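Bug #77: duplicate submission created two jobs. Keeping one. Sequence:
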Amino acid sequence: MSKNIAVIGCGYWGKNLVRNFYELDSLYAICDADEDLLKSFKDKYPDLETYTDYMDILQHPDIKAVVIATPAVTHFSLAKEALLENKDVYVEKPIAIHYKDGEELVALAAEKKRILMVGHILQYHPAVLKLKQMISNGEIGKINYIYSNRLNLGKIRTEENILWSFAPHDISVILDLLEEFPEEIAAHGGNYLNPNITDVTVTTLSFSCGVKAHIFVSWLHPYKEQKLGVIGDKGMMVFDDVNKDNKLLRYDHKIDWIDRLPRPTAKTASGC
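Kept job's structure:
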């Protein structure tokens, strides 16, 4: 594999992308405005080229693709410039702060015949892949509803709100599991730390197949929780990304109708 990829933004999440692309033996260069940070990477990966100006990356003839892991407010402009320079682009979520900008990037990538990929990494998580397979095989029956909680105390953003920062993970997984887009969407939230930034949101999605989903995200929560539950008429699944031992659990609960009244029968959860 030729080394023709560059990472722009090597901080909080970018450092993980640098490590992974380097281990794949495909990383040619990294770029960050922090020279001390670049030096620390150069000490660890001495064969990498380093740049402080992203235009040196975008105009480099040997770099064919760029990975953008800068603050969310810069995603649109950097991705657009990269596509205009005929680079393939992997951009961290959210793809842009405004949906019109996202649509513009999709159209530009199609026009330039370039790859534009958003970092929805949970779609490739082994537990999510297993969950999707079980749903496709009908193992938990007809899906009734899906819920997702992504909660923590921080990391608090000052540019994008909690919906744009946390919820893209859950939205992408739900759309992938159901393989359709919602007919109706409603999102409600509250601003507590900054009058212009929403800290907590609850979003509801309604699908033509009859499934409803809700997504609860917050960075003002007393403990960390990352759970996605899928409730079917033959079983219930919970993907718990915080659980180190069993990230995917199955609950074979039953609802029996006795005297025309529903009566649940709970069973012990089993790992998948």
